[in-house]
Structure formats: C-alpha cells, structure tokens
Structure to design on (915 residues):
C-alpha cells in the first residue's frame, strides 16, 4: 500500500477490504493444497473430503472479490496504484480459484486411490508439492508485503517445479509399466502430478500479477521452463 | 506531423519562473509541448498550472505585479523577448476560459470579431465563410445556423463554451489553450467538448488545464502534474495514470493528497 | 441545557422581530415625511396653474384710439389703447369717484392694456364695437378668488380694499370672473407682478446650464474614468488621484460657486449671470460624480469579457473601446443623468455667479443672462406678495417633475441597454 491514506476514508477501507479478502482467499487455498497433499501422503480421506467441501468457500470468495472489483471500478474510478491493485485482485482471485479447483480435483482422485502406494512415488509427489506449497506461501507473502523481488523469485523458481514434475511423471510412468493392475492408480497419479504442476503455474501467474502490481511493469520474456515433458498427450 | 516517429515539439518552456510581486508562483518549469497532441496540466488548486498556461499567450501581462522569467520558445521564437508582439502572438495562440465568456453580442459578431481585428476577411462573403467553418469545426453550426444574429449569451452553457471555442479557432491559431473549459458544464456538454478537443487536435496543438483527472485521462496524450509551483512529473498520459514515477503524482491522482 | 437552548432560540426570534419592526417603522417614517412634503407642495402649488380672469366689456372706439375707419396693421400697433382700457375698467362702476376709479384700475394687472390691444389686433373687425375681453385679474384678486385671501382682516391691513371686493363680488355674481389654465406661467419670464410672473426664463436658463454642463463634464469625466480604470498603472500617484476625486465629490457646492466667481468671472471675464458660466461651474461639480459612476460601471464589466477580447488578440485600446466601454455605457449614462439632476437642483453656486439677478427676458442662448429653476424658487420665496407663495410651490413642482423625468430616463436607459452577461 502507498504511504499516505486516501482522503476518502471509505475508499481506503474498500481497498483494504479487497486486499484482505485476497489474503484470506490465499490462506484458504494454501490450506486446501496442504490438506490435499496430506490426504495423499497420510491416506486420510477425511482431509480429502474437507478439501472438497471447502472449495465452495473459495468459489464464494472469488465471486465476492469480483463484485468488489466491479464496484470499485464503477464507483471510484481507481487510478495508478489503486487501479493496478483492483485489476490484479481480479486476476489473482481467478488464479486462486483455479488453485482451489485443482486441489479439489486432487482430493477427489485421492479418494479413489489404492491404500498402499509405493513410497518412492509418494516421495516424488511430496517433493513437487512441497515446492509448490512453498511457492504459494511465498507469493502470498510477496502480495502482502508488496515485494517485487519475492515475486520475481517465485516466478523464476517455476522452472524447478517443472523439473520436479517431470521426475515425478517418470516415476509414475515407471510404476504404470510395472504392472497392468497399476493402471487405475497410475492414471490418477499422473493427473494428480499434473494438477500440482498446474497449481505451480497459477502461482507463477500470481507472481506476475504481484510484480505488475508493485512495479507497474510486466515481467518480460518467456516464463522459465524446465525440460520439455516427456509425457505426450497431456491436456 | 511526425518526424521519424517522434512528435515535433511545438512549445518549449525552459527555466520558467513566475513571480506575483515577491511571491514566486512557478519554479523553474521545463516542459516541451508536442505538436498536434493534447497536453493536460493537472494539479491541486493554486499549483500554478493556470499561471503556466497564461504564460504561453502572455495573458499574465495584464496583471501588473506579475513577472515572467525564462524562455518560452514557440516556432523557434522566444515569446518572452522584448521584440515579441503580443497581438500577433495571441492570434497564433487562442484561449478558451473556465467560464464561457461570449461577448454580449450576436453569435455572428462573436465569431467575426477576431478575423475583423486581424483583417482576415476582405469581403462579407469571406467573413460568412469563416464564421460558418469555425462554427462547423466547433460542432455548433447545426444548432445555431438559423439564429446567427441572436445574442450569444442566449445559448446554453455548453453551447456558449463551444461558441468560445469557435471564436478561438476563427483566427486559425496554431495552439489552443484551455483553462478548465468544462468546469461549468454538465456531463453531456463536457462530453461534447471532449469530443471536439479530439477533433481539434488534428489541426491544432491543445493544452488543457483541468481539475478532473478523469478528463485529463480521457482527452490528453501527454500529462504534466504541477504541485506548489513546480512541475513534478510529465509524460505520456498512460504512464501518469497507470504508473507514475513520483509518489506525489501518485498520491494526487489516486486521491491520497494532504 | 435544552431549556437554555430554547431560551436562546426565543431570544433570537424576538430580536429578529424587533429588527424587522424597526426597519418597517423607519420606512414608514420616511414615507410619511415624503407624503407630508408632497402634500404641502401640491396643496399650495396647484392653484398657480390656474389664473383668474375678469371678463370686462371693452368698447373699441376708433375715435378714442385716434384711428380712422380702416386702419392698417401698423396703425393698430401704434394706436393708443390706454384710454379705452381705462374707460372699460371705469365702466364697471359708473358712479365711482376718482379714488375708486384708481382702485378699479388696480383690479387688473398692468398688462391689461396690452391684452386689450392683442384682442383687437387678432380681430380688427372689432373696431367700433364692444366686446367682452378676458383680462388678467390682479394677483390679490386672484388669491381672493382662489380663497387664499383672508377677508376678515381690517381693511388697512389688506391690499384689497372693501370697494374692490364689492365690485369683484358683483362680477362674480354676474359670472364675469373665470378661472382658466395659466399658460403664462410657462411662457412668461419673471415679473415683479405675481399674476404675470412665469418660469420661462429660469426654465430655459436651467436647460442651457445643464447642456453646457453636460457638454463639458461628460467627455472629460468619461475620458478620465476610462484612462484611470483601464490604462493608468496602479501606483501611489493614481491612488492619490482617486482619493482626490472621491473627495471632490464631497466638496460643498458653494465652494465651486466661489471658484466660478473668482476664476470664470474675475479672471476670464466671462459674462455674468449667464448659463454659460453657470454650466461650467456646475460641470466642475458634476465631474467627480460622473467619473465615479463611470469607473464603477467599468469595474462592473466582468474581467472575463476583457480576457476574451485580449485573448483574441485585441489590443488594450480595442478591448476597451469595442467591449468594455460599450458595456459600461448604461451605467455611465444613468450616473451622468443623476449627476445632472443634482446639478439641476443646485442653487448656491449659481447665486454666487450672479444667476440670481432679476431677468425679465427669455434667454435665447447660453450667453444671455438667465435665472435657473432653483434660483427662481429662491427669488420668489423671498418676495413679499401673497401671489408668489403658490408660485414657489408650483415652481418646485416643475423642478421635481423635471428631476423625476430625468431619473426615469436614467432608469429606462439602464434597463433597456444593460446587457446580461453570463
């Protein structure tokens, strides 16, 4: 936030409110992702179900934020930093909503998975997901602190997630090749991996928005990409 | 009139200082105005934006205690030079004021006044043409063509202001200065004037002082922000309204001032 | 707390009521005084517009007038009308003794001979015949007829004798006394005889004075005002001039009279008692009034109009002459008229420059001696004859009428030409 408060206090409050809604929504997404991962690692279907149930909350937040943004634009005509704040809030909220959806999707698949998964697979998954979780947390911190350097860091480390995802995919493919019985679980796991990677992508989107919010400039160049995924036919 | 993709500089102010008696109103203003562009000057009341505008056609001469220092170069000619003829200067640089101020005469006389004193028409027919084209350019012709010989003060506020614009363009000025031209008008009249400004910039260079940031954003390509007699920031309107460099500018345009 | 508030509120209302009451009573007082004043003037003055005539049979006897039967116009002019005039008066009472005949003669104005002459010149065929002629009654009988003369005074305190009254009453009974509109009040110059005195000379004197005053004061004042307001730099010197102009407007008028006396008459040797000198003196007095009015109306022209003209590239001179001055004219003109109205009512300076002299001719130019209306009022008010009392009021009515017309004119100019600038 800029140093001086607005002359119109209600405007200031509306912006603050919008800001805190994004933070809250981010918090819910963080929680959803954490629970979804935990559900896989600990094989706890309660967690998975609560994620599925709580997604509704996140969706509601998105609607709320969208309304707030529309109101701000219509009634306050925000300029400069306020304008960027409003517009990025809209985009960040839609990314966060997608993150919520993906976490829900992971949880749904978790419920269908076999009780006993090979440890190496779970480990690979945890490696990716813990990175993504870290990213999500730090981008939300970056948003809270209006830190362009933190946002830049998040953006740059998307590469690492892509690499880890590929590794994880390879593990899953190996698992699939082992036994025909593994087909069900393997496919689900492929999607779970992919979803986690997608969450990473959305986090990177948020990082771009935060960077624009703070500096007023767009992050130039292509998004850093890891090695090309070897799995073809992905969605 | 682009040269290598860069707009030509029409007016260039260099180190302009203005004093009202002992009080300094403008501090070292350096600003280039681009040709065939709309430049908006914004800033809080008393920041000196109107004072600067009035430097450009030497309207500050009217005020005895007002002293202008520095160079204002228009067409390679410093208008603050002793040799500058104010009457010729004001023929080149028209002005539209905050409150519509048509002469209490007929519409026709309002428009024909400038061309008459500058001897721009040789016959009645030529004058009629000037009046017609000026009114057409000011998008007022259709509304008033049947009552050219009625008093100009009988028009609505928005029409009066367009009449004043028509009067200003009747002498084909290169530059038109506008000092808060819409502050006394309703939104529809304001929109009409804004549309007009957009049209006029094809032939004239326009500098507009406005209190409405939204208006500055709507009509201008370049924006300068004045504060306490200083030009804090100037640049493309886009940049100023989306991502200004200076925190003061940002605080002003987002309504965080004071 | 609440109680105090209510008390305060009641106080505020009552003080407002009190104020309104005071204001209304002030207006009432002012109107009352005005009404009394006007009533007094009109009630004493209106009779002056009527004149009493005696209808006397006159025998235009050619022989008495030393005329032959068919006299030429010159003959008629030069004939002796005194005898037939006297005779016709004496005929009112055939038994009158010499003293009574003298009194009979004094029942009409000394102009009676000329009135009879005029009658014959208008109609020469009357020669040798007898005709009833309207003859101006003496001012005292005029007053008697109008009821302004106390009959119950002892005879020696009256200017009308019992005998005159007796004859007059007889004439009244016979219907030989008539009251008609007094045209001569407007067409005759001043006279020592109240029944013949008119305002023609002073009216013309006033008009000439005002014209001279206008011709001098207006251009000088307007130029001065325009220069001071539009062109002069604002510095100590112009401030000083401004203060002095304002002071000049407050200088007592008699001082201007002394100035006229000391400079115009003594130094420049201009003819005394003339509207020329009067007008010049009055113009000195009117000058500051017009300058102030003109400057005020120049100031009232919105600066936006000046800016508009300047921004169009008009020079200062063009701005002033094309826009500011025409817009200020209604105010200037009405200020001028009010200044002239003031000058019209001025007495003291005119007395000093000798316009108080008795003038029994009607002036034809500003160089002829003349009186002026307010001075005429002063002269008549000083006179002892009862007949002048109503003349004073009548003259005041004429002066007031003149002033009202001028002020009305000022109002009309202001309303008609005042442009509305937005």
């Amino acid at each position: 936030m800029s140093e001086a408060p607005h002359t119109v206090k209600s405007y200031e409050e509306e912006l603050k409110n919008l800001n805190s809604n994004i933070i809250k929504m981010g918090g819910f997404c963080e929680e959803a992702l954490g629970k979804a991962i935990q559900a896989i690692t600990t094989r706890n279907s309660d967690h998975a179900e609560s994620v599925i149930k709580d997604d509704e909350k996140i969706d509601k937040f998105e609607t709320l934020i969208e309304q707030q943004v529309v109101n701000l634009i219509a009634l306050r005509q925000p300029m400069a930093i306020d304008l960027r704040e409003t517009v990025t809030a809209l985009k960040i909220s839609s990314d966060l909503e997608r993150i919520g959806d993906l976490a829900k999707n992971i949880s749904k698949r978790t419920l269908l998975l076999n009780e006993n998964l090979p440890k190496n697979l779970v480990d690979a998954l945890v490696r990716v997901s813990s990175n993504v979780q870290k990213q999500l947390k730090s981008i939300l911190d970056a948003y809270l602190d209006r830190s362009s350097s933190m946002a830049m860091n998040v953006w740059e480390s998307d590469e690492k997630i892509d690499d880890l995802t590929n590794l994880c995919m390879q593990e899953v493919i190996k698992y699939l090749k082992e036994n025909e019985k593994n087909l069900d679980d393997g496919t689900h796991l492929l999607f779970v991996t992919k979803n986690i990677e997608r969450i990473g992508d959305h986090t990177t989107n948020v990082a771009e928005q935060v960077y624009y919010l703070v500096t007023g400039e767009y992050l130039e160049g292509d998004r850093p990409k890891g090695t090309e995924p070897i799995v073809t036919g992905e969605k | 009139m682009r040269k290598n993709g860069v707009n030509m500089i029409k007016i260039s102010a260099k180190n302009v200082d203005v004093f009202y008696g002992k009080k300094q109103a403008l501090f070292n203003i350096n600003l280039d105005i681009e040709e065939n562009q709309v430049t908006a000057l914004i800033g809080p009341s008393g920041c000196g934006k109107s004072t600067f505008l009035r430097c450009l056609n030497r309207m500050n001469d009217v005020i005895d205690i007002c002293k202008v220092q520095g160079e204002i170069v228009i067409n390679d000619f410093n208008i603050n030079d002793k040799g500058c003829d104010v009457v010729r200067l004001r023929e080149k640089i028209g002005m539209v004021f905050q409150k519509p101020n048509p002469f209490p005469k007929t519409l026709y006389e309002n428009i024909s006044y400038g061309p008459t004193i500058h001897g721009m028409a040789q016959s009645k027919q030529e004058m009629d043409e000037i009046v017609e084209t000026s009114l057409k350019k000011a998008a007022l012709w259709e509304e008033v063509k049947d009552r050219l010989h009625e008093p100009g003060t009988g028009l609505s506020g928005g029409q009066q202001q367009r009449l004043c614009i028509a009067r200003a363009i009747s002498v084909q000025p290169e530059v038109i200065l506008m000092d808060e031209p819409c502050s006394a008008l309703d939104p529809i009249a304001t929109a009409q004037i804004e549309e007009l400004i957009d049209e006029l910039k094809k032939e004239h260079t326009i500098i507009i002082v406005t209190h409405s940031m939204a208006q500055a954003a709507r009509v201008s390509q370049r924006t300068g922000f004045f504060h306490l007699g200083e030009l804090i920031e100037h640049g493309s309107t886009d940049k100023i309204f989306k991502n200004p460099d200076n925190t003061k500018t940002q605080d002003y345009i987002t309504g965080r001032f004071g | 707390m609440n109680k105090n508030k209510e008390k305060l509120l009641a106080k505020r209302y009552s003080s407002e009521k009190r104020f309104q009451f005071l204001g209304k009573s002030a207006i009432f007082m002012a109107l009352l005084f005005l009404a009394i004043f006007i009533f007094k003037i009109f009630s004493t003055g209106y009779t002056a517009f009527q004149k009493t005539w005696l209808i006397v049979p006159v025998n235009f006897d050619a022989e008495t007038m030393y005329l032959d039967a068919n006299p030429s116009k010159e003959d008629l002019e030069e004939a002796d009308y005194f005898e037939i005039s006297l005779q016709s008066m004496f005929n009112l009472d055939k038994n009158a003794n010499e003293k009574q005949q003298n009194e009979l003669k004094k029942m009409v104005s000394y102009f009676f001979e000329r009135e009879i002459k005029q009658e014959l010149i208008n109609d020469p065929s009357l020669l040798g015949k007898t005709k009833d002629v309207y003859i101006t009654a003496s001012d005292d009988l005029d007053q008697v007829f109008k009821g302004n003369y106390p009959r119950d005074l002892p005879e020696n305190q009256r200017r009308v004798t019992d005998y005159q009254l007796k004859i007059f009453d007889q004439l009244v009974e016979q219907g030989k006394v008539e009251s008609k509109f007094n045209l001569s009040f407007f067409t005759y110059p001043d006279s020592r005889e109240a029944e013949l005195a008119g305002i023609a000379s002073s009216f013309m004197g006033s008009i000439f004075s005002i014209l001279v005053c206008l011709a001098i004061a207006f251009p000088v004042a307007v130029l001065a005002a325009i220069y001071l307001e539009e062109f002069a730099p604002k510095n100590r010197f112009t401030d000083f001039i401004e203060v002095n102009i304002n002071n000049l407007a407050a200088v007592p008028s008699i001082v201007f009279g002394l100035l006229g006396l000391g400079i115009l008459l003594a130094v420049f040797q201009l003819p005394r008692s003339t509207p020329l000198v009067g007008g010049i003196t009055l113009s000195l007095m009117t000058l500051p009034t017009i300058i102030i009015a003109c400057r005020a109306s120049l100031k009232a022209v919105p600066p936006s109009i000046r800016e508009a003209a300047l921004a169009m590239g008009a020079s200062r001179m063009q701005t002033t002459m094309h826009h500011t001055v025409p817009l200020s004219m209604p105010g200037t003109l009405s200020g001028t008229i009010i200044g002239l109205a003031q000058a019209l009512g001025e007495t003291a300076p005119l007395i000093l420059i000798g316009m108080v002299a008795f003038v029994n001719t009607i002036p034809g130019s500003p160089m002829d001696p003349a009186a002026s209306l307010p001075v005429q009022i002063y002269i008549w008010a000083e006179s002892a004859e009862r007949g002048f009392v109503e003349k004073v009021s009548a003259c005041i009515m004429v002066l007031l009428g003149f002033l009202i017309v001028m002020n009305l004119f000022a109002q009309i100019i202001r309303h008609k030409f005042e442009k509305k600038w937005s």
Remarks:
- Chain C has two domains: 51-180, 200-417.
- The first helix of chain C runs from residue 2 to 45.
- Chain C is about 65% helix and 5% strand.
